[in-house]
Design goal:
It contains six helices and no strands. It is mainly alpha-helical and 88 residues long. The longest helix has 15 residues.
Length: 88
């Protein structure tokens, strides 16, 4: 599970460096940058971060290319943290 959390944190760090994607993530989740720290303490937050990538393949592939991470690693982390559903 620690590896899954590390993967989710890596996604969050990457999103922080991608203002357009971070804006989309915030809009879809209803979060604001100012309350993200509190939200990160909630169960399911990290799965939600991974779900954001899992539900948009181009974003998933951009993350994987930028961080030299395999898509399967993200998928395994998503499922390990309780994420479910279809990617795509």
């Amino acid at each position: 599970m620690a590896d899954a959390e590390d993967t989710a944190i890596a996604v969050l760090v990457w999103l922080a460096g991608e203002p357009e994607l971070m804006g989309r993530f915030l809009a879809l989740t209803g979060l604001e940058a100012s309350n993200m720290r509190d939200a990160a303490k909630e169960p399911g937050f990290l799965a939600g971060v991974l779900g954001f990538l899992m539900n948009h393949e181009p974003t998933l592939m951009d993350f994987c290319a930028a961080t030299d991470t395999k898509p399967e690693t993200v998928a395994r982390a998503f499922h390990a943290l309780g994420g479910a559903g279809e990617a795509g």
